[in-house]
Design brief:
Blueprint lengths: L1 E6 L5 H12 L2 E3 L9 H6 L1 H26 L3 E4 L2 H14 L5 H15 L7 E6 L2 H11 L9 H16 L5 E6 L9 H15 L4
Parallel strand pairs: 1-3, 1-4, 2-3, 4-5
Helix pairs in contact: 3-4, 3-5, 4-5, 4-7
Length: 204
């Protein structure tokens, strides 16, 4: 079984992945942020490093999805391959930070990969307002994230909403994270767990 958590930068994906993996005894698969050789360069010089970064993420996520399906385990994944292709890469292209040539190359590669991967059994989308995202990003204090602009986050949020509206690949659970605190409030986490249980009951 494959559960995936999607959402903008700072929406709480990694934290929720940790909490749910602990509760359900699912094996967590996280985004490769620590070992990513392009991330810091990208935030300092987006235009130069956008294609390299997106190819790195695409490769890493494709490998992850293939391993998830082959393992036969119950796995929860922090961010999906679809977010790279439907949100981050097109956004960089639209902002003039990825050339037409690179974007076409990237899209062609993703479309090939997509024929070989299965979507998650359940997608959990964390919906958040921009002020909430900014607060969370500042709170975790990663140096390379200090340069992320409100405009960049807003564009990503718009693309997330458009993608979620048209998502038909499987079961979808949307959680509005603005007014809940699943880290410090056990009741909020309990409500999320109950909603996931309700969605998954139809899976077996």
């Amino acid at each position: 079984m494959h559960i995936a958590v999607a959402g903008n930068i700072g929406s709480g994906k990694t934290t929720l992945t940790q909490l749910l993996s602990k509760h359900f005894k699912w094996e967590p698969h996280y985004e490769d942020v620590v070992d990513n050789p392009y991330l810091e360069d990208f935030y300092h010089q987006m235009e130069r490093w956008s294609f390299n970064l997106q190819i790195y993420f695409l490769n890493s996520r494709f490998r992850q999805v293939m391993q998830i399906r082959q393992s036969g385990k119950k796995i929860i994944q922090d961010r999906t391959i679809y977010e790279d292709a439907h949100i981050f890469a097109p956004n960089l292209h639209a902002m003039g930070l990825m050339t037409n040539r690179d974007f076409q190359n990237y899209t062609s590669l993703f479309e090939l990969m997509e024929t070989m991967v299965q979507p998650p059994d359940l997608l959990i989308y964390l919906r958040s307002s921009i002020p909430n995202l900014v607060g969370q990003i500042h709170k975790r204090g990663r140096d390379y994230e200090n340069s992320i602009s409100i405009d960049y986050l807003s564009r990503l949020n718009e693309r997330y909403e458009a993608w979620i509206q048209s998502y038909t690949k499987g079961k979808l659970l949307v959680i509005d994270v603005d007014n809940i605190n699943f880290v410090d409030n056990p009741e909020d986490l309990g409500n999320i767990i109950n909603r996931i249980d309700a969605e998954l009951n139809g899976l077996f």
